[in-house]
Structure to design on (84 residues):
């Protein structure tokens, strides 16, 4: 017998993985309907919060860009007038 195999049967000895709810790590993942519902609700709330924060940041950036008056810009050591 070498490397966990039997020379006569050719089958791997030891633990075997069965199909079904195997996750990315190869372990079975079991979650009740209540746990799954709670997790999904938490994820929805986090997503809504992230989207709200992103929208707030976009609005603030847009308002800031609109309130800036065009004036001389400095390009290196040279002042450049707006529009030229």
């Amino acid at each position: 017998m070498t490397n966990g195999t039997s020379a006569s049967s050719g089958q791997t000895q030891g633990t075997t993985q069965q199909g079904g709810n195997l996750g990315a790590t190869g372990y079975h993942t079991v979650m009740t309907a209540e746990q799954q519902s709670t997790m999904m609700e938490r994820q929805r709330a986090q997503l809504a919060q992230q989207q709200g924060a992103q929208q707030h940041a976009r609005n603030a950036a847009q308002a800031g860009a609109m309130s800036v008056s065009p004036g001389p810009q400095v390009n290196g050591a040279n002042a450049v007038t707006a529009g030229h």
The longest strand covers residues 73-75. Confidence is low (pLDDT under 50) at residues 5-14. Helices lie at 33-67.
